[in-house]
Backbone:
């Protein structure tokens, strides 16, 4: 196991990928180096491996936030502006997957996550309108839906969350980890055989520090959970025992501003990409620990169109 206790990201370690991106909140990386980045100008910006050539892909509408890649190389998108989940096929066509639950609007759909069992987890930050009101105070009206990738059989598996953000399932499939933005930390639930959740508990400091707001989370191969924090532009690693290690801190946002997600990439999964709501490119650096491979790395998935 690699030791991450003394790892720090210095400004000189950071490189940048992509140009003129708009709100590049979430990043999908393929094994060959291809990147797919959520982009306000179109659903996704595609950056080719090697050449770095980029193009917009999908519908040029809404506010794409979290994205996930399916087994067949298509994309599922959480549109936080329209409050819907939709799917983009490999020709760039859009199809609504879910736009309501129990006869009501979904709310601020923040993130979608496909786990190793092809379960689709949908994180809804808040039903408060405008959603900014729920960011400026603690409003526990966020929730999580569970369904299949086609949007069938949606059911609410968690609620009472404080601005639900990214979610992840651990490597053993035992726990769902949830970033609660306005709580400033991470909660987790034990996952039952049918996908039901129970035993909500905090994981690591809650909050990370007074006034903290967390956003994106991702596991590395050693079971550490990487967390982005947006008020001090931090990257924090939570070790398996919950101990918090700050590996990057940039309160002035000179190197990384408003970090929203962490994606491990590269053939050895040691290249880290950091999404952002404010930057026009994606920050990148090298990690001493490999990332945990995402669902789409485990098969012959390709989305290159």
Residues:
């Amino acid at each position: 196991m690699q030791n991450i206790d003394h790892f720090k990201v210095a400004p000189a370690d950071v490189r940048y990928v992509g140009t003129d991106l708009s709100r590049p909140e979430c990043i999908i990386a393929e094994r060959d180096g291809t990147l797919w980045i959520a982009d306000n100008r179109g659903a996704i910006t595609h950056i080719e491996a090697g050449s770095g050539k980029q193009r917009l892909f999908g519908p040029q509408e809404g506010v794409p936030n979290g994205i996930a890649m399916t087994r067949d190389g298509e994309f599922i998108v959480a549109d936080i502006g329209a409050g819907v989940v939709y799917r983009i096929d490999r020709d760039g066509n859009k199809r609504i997957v879910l736009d309501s639950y129990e006869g009501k609007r979904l709310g601020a759909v923040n993130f979608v996550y496909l786990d190793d069992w092809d379960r689709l987890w949908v994180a809804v930050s808040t039903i408060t309108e405008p959603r900014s009101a729920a960011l400026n105070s603690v409003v526990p009206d966020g929730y999580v839906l569970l369904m299949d990738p086609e949007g069938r059989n949606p059911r609410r598996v968690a609620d009472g969350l404080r601005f639900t953000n990214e979610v992840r399932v651990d490597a053993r499939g035992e726990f769902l980890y949830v970033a609660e933005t306005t709580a400033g930390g991470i909660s987790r639930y034990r996952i039952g055989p049918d996908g039901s959740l129970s035993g909500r508990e905090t994981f690591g400091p809650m909050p990370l520090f007074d006034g903290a707001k967390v956003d994106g989370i991702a596991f590395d191969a050693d079971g550490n959970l990487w967390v982005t924090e947006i008020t001090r532009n931090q990257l924090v690693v939570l070790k398996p025992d919950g101990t918090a290690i700050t590996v990057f801190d940039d309160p002035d946002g000179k190197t990384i501003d408003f970090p929203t997600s962490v994606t491990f990439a590269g053939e050895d999964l040691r290249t880290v990409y950091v999404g952002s709501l404010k930057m026009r490119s994606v920050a990148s650096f090298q990690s001493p620990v490999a990332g945990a491979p995402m669902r789409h790395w485990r098969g012959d998935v390709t989305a290159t169109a």
